[in-house]
Amino acid sequence: MIATTLAGATFGSVLSLLIARDIPNHELQTFQTGIAQGQILLILDIPTRQIDEISQLIKNTHPEAQIGVVKAP
Predict the structure, then answer these.
(1) Which helix (H) or strand (E) holds 9?
(2) What is the domain partition of the chain in residue ranges?
């Protein structure tokens, strides 16, 4: 019973991923050129109170990084 449940959950997860990967994310279209050129897009979901701290950590480690902040509505 447990094996069947796990197999079903795994199959459902894999199937969902295969379907979802072909759905375009319009918010990411802005970054497609840079990604195609080998640049890295790092997306973080962090609490608003930590934005400055995390941004500074990234700047200290990777001064070449371009940081943009989008706050959820």
Answers:
(1) helix 2-20
(2) 1-39, 42-73
